[in-house]
Write a structure and sequence with these properties.
This protein has about 190 residues and is an all-alpha fold. The protein contains nine helices and no strands. α4 packs across α5 and α7 packs across α8. The longest helix has 21 residues. The radius of gyration is 19 Å and the shape is elongated.
Length: about 190
């Protein structure tokens, strides 16, 4: 995309996020987004076919950077002093949430948050599956790894919601440590050999 297209796409994203702050996703229509972004109808449809496509693209943009960089030690906010500490991956994700880029915390706690939480959880499942677990069933207890990655991702999402509901009174370092302490036995039992 050229600079003009990137700027327009950002204006659409920003308008959509502003609308979501005070309106339910189901109540938002494409015309609302067009009016808020100050663009024409043809401009919107040149970027997105539907409101659902816009939601998908926004979620991809919000979570892909967080998830993609969580396992890349070169983009770690100085958190990876020891690259073998798996806890640092969770800390990295929490750091991005705390930085609140693109008002991600607002979206995770808005009226339509279930849409974003579902995307967040699915992104986490992929990260957990690829970095913590084998792709097979554990021979000792016959539990599919997809079940385990879903459980850990769901727990992380619930932890983030609890953290937000409690006004982020605990540091991200504490939250990461608490979460890893609870999930470490499960992760270690099903970790890559």
């Amino acid at each position: 995309m050229d600079k003009r297209q990137v700027k327009t796409r950002k204006a659409i994203f920003d308008a959509f996020v502003r609308l979501l702050e005070h309106k339910n996703y189901n109540a938002i229509i494409v015309q609302d987004i067009i009016d808020e972004a100050l663009i024409g109808r043809s401009t919107f449809y040149a970027h997105f076919e539907t409101k659902e496509d816009l939601l998908e693209a926004l979620c991809l943009e919000l979570f892909s950077h967080i998830i993609d960089t969580a396992s890349d030690f070169s983009h770690a906010h100085g958190l990876y002093k020891n690259s073998h500490i798996k806890e640092a991956i969770f800390l990295h994700i929490l750091q991005h949430l705390e930085d609140n880029d693109n008002n991600i915390l607002g979206l995770l706690s808005c009226e339509s948050n279930e849409l974003f939480l579902r995307h967040f959880k699915n992104s986490l499942k992929e990260l957990i599956q690829s970095h913590f677990l084998n792709n097979q069933t554990c021979p000792h207890n016959n539990i599919p790894h997809d079940f385990i990655s879903n459980h850990i991702a769901g727990s992380f999402v619930e932890m983030v919601l609890w953290w937000l509901e409690n006004d982020r009174q605990y540091s991200i370092e504490d939250m990461s440590r608490y979460f890893y302490h609870i999930t470490e036995p499960l992760i270690l039992e099903h970790q890559h050999e």
